[in-house]
Each structure stands twice: as structure tokens, then as C-alpha cells.
Amino acid sequence: MRTNAITTVADKPMRYVALFLLATTLVLLFASSAQPAASVHSSARSAGMGGAFTALAKGVDAPKYNPANLGLDGYRQTGFEFASVGASITNNAFTLSDYNNYTGATLSTSDKQDIMNKIPDEGFRIDADIRANAASLALGHYVLSFNGVASANANINKDVMDLILNGNQFADTIHITGSYSDGISYASMDLSYGFQFHSQGTRQFALGVTAKYIKGLYAEQLVELTGHASTYESGFEGQGSAIVRTATSGSGYGLDVGAALKLNNRYTAGVRFQNILGKITWNKDTEEHGYTYVLDATTYDDFEDDDFGGSDDYSIEIGNFSTTLPRSMNIGFAKTSGKLLWAVDWVQGFETKPGVSTKPLLAMGTEYSVFGIAPLRLGYSVGGNKNAAFSFGSGVRFMGFYLDAAIRTGTSMTVYSAKGANFTISTGLVF
What we know:
Elements: H1 12-23, H2 26-29, H3 44-48, H4 62-65, E1 77-91, H5 96-102, H6 109-118, E2 124-140, E3 142-156, H7 158-166, E4 173-175, E5 180-200, E6 203-232, E7 235-247, E8 249-262, E9 267-284, E10 287-298, H8 300-304, E11 310-317, E12 321-324, E13 328-335, E14 340-349, E15 361-368, E16 376-383, E17 389-398, E18 401-408, E19 420-430
Antiparallel strand pairs: 1-2, 1-19, 2-3, 3-5, 4-6, 5-6, 6-7, 6-8, 7-10, 8-9, 9-12, 9-13, 10-11, 13-14, 14-15, 15-16, 16-17, 17-18, 18-19
């Protein structure tokens, strides 16, 4: 029979077990930084179309999805983007409707079971991401852009979530293995170039490249996180440890390559390989921080007397260390002319790490414009390691000036199905 770890006095010891288990996870969750998540787009036009933009991106947007587009007729522009920002904070379990239902409520046994059923087997994950273009200049075949990325993600083992809600059984062992937090924040200067490799009539084939100089701003890299605790009649037993590396500055590089095929004046296809080369070497204030705890036949009285076993922590200087940028591929096909445009993208990560997944992501979107002044956009994306979601966007375009905005919801077209908040805004001039 389960005890209730959060509502009865008799189960106060379980609160302490939960505290020690979470000490090596929750303290780290939002202190760390992560690789940028693929669901965050700094182009509002793309975000409104679900991120399906590989074969549509022009001018300043081309380097974000496929630099080869800069080699195609009709895709080269002269323009300046003042700013473009995409921001997102999401989780993988609970919608806004769930939040409204359970916040402040007295949870019944069925409520707790419903909450646990919503949490995936891999645990409860939170992602927070910002991707921004401070300024971008497009001059025909070339685009120069200045970008910034700040991102953090964290995952809490499902056993720990179950312990918080329901307590645990005697002789049961709770593990925190599978919990993590990862991330990064950096600025970059990107130079993109696209050129036409072959043409025949309206058919054109182009290649492109984006070279990036990266300035690392801060990093926390979780190296190791293990821990468990067990409950017995005689007391609690367990141990855990965490090792984190930190730095306050670094530098590195990145390289994207792409190809684009304009089939005719109505349809275009393209492929981009992101970060085929990409690494940041951290070389300032590089440190390793460690924390360990031991519960050795600890009783409730030991907790009250602060005599519960042992704990230790340390911080030492270390040498330089490196983090790699996530590698992925996006393939797109789009209808590029007329009042109604549409696009489909396939995104495939080459590794499973923050920002990418070996699980494929499918994005599709459409843009409808009657007069060309205020286009309407609708998109949907599903797969990868992100929530399935609809997206909506619009904007104003007048005499070369544009201001676009977009939001993402969830599996329905209302904000109540959203598992967080995600919006993007872009503004600039096309001459």
C-alpha cells in the first residue's frame, strides 16, 4: 500500500528522501544551458508555416534553412532585417488546460494517476529557448547575419515525479538516472553564399554554404548524474553524485552546406546539412563542480538532527573543454508561386542530443495572400523530440517594409492545447 508523500505528517521522512533525490537534479535543471531546439524559429514567416521553409526561404531567411537558395533566380534579395526573435518555453506532458485544472486543486488518487499517465516514460522534460537575429544584410548571393542563442533544457526521471506525488513503498528503490540538464549560450557571425551550378530553361540547380564564427558566452555541461534512495523499516539508504563543467567564454566555428533545385517557376526542392562541422572550445573560467550524498541506515530522527549520513561538494579548475553543435539534415519541397503557397519539410537529426533527435520531424505549412499586404499562414509539425503543434501567423507588408508574427499552439487550434508558449516576430526592409 502506498503512502502519501505530500499530504500526511506520517510521511515526512519521504519528503526528505525526495529532497535528496532532487538535490542532484532540480538544482541543476535551469542552471544549465542547452543546444538550440529545432522547434524554435527566428523567422516569423517560417514559424507561422510550422517551420516548413527549406524550399521557400529567400534573402535574409535563406541561411536559416538553406543557403543554396541564394543561387536561385527569384530568391536573391537586397534587404536588411532589423531584428527577428523566436522564444519558447515548453514541456512534454501538460497543456494549459491541464495547468488550469490541477493548479491549486486538492488532488485525488485518480488525479495523480492522470498526471502520471501524461508524463512519458523517459520523464518530465522542460525546454526554454531563445534564438535571435540582431541584424542581417542580404546582398544578392550573399547574406551577413549576427545571431544569438540562449537555451536550457531539463528532464526529471519519472520515478522522481511518482515519488513527489505518491510517495514510495518500503524496500522500494527510487532512481534519478535519466534525469539531466544540458545547454549553451553563444553569439555568432554568419556569412552565407549561394551560386547557380547549372541551369536549363526555367530549371536551375544551386549550391550554398554558411560559415559561422561563434563566440561562446556561457556553458554548463552535465558530465555525470546518478543517484538512488531506498526506504526500509530501519531507515533510508542511498547515494548519489553529480559532476558539472562550467565556463564563461569560448570560441568556435560552424559550417552548413546545401543544395537547391528549382524545377520550374512553380516548384522548388532543397536540402541542407546543418553543422556538418561545428564546435566551441571553452577556455575561460573552466571549472568542474561535484556534489555527492550518502544515506546510510538514516532514520527520521537523523534528518531532524542533521545527522543523515554524509555529503560533500567541490569546485576545481580544469583545462579547456569542447562542446559540439547538433548535426541535422532538412529536406523540403514547396509550391512557390500564386496566391496560395505550400511547403513540406523533413528534418532528421544524426544524433540524439539537445536540439536534435534521430526521430524524424515532419513539418507542413501554407500561406495565402489575397492582396499581398497581410498574408495568412497556417502550419503543423509532428515528430522529433518535440510536441505536435499547430502554428498560426500573419503580418504586414508595405513598400518593402515587413512585420511578421507567429505563435504555436498544440494538437488543437486553441491555446488550451499548448504545452507551453512559443512565439516569433520579425521586421525589416526589402529594397
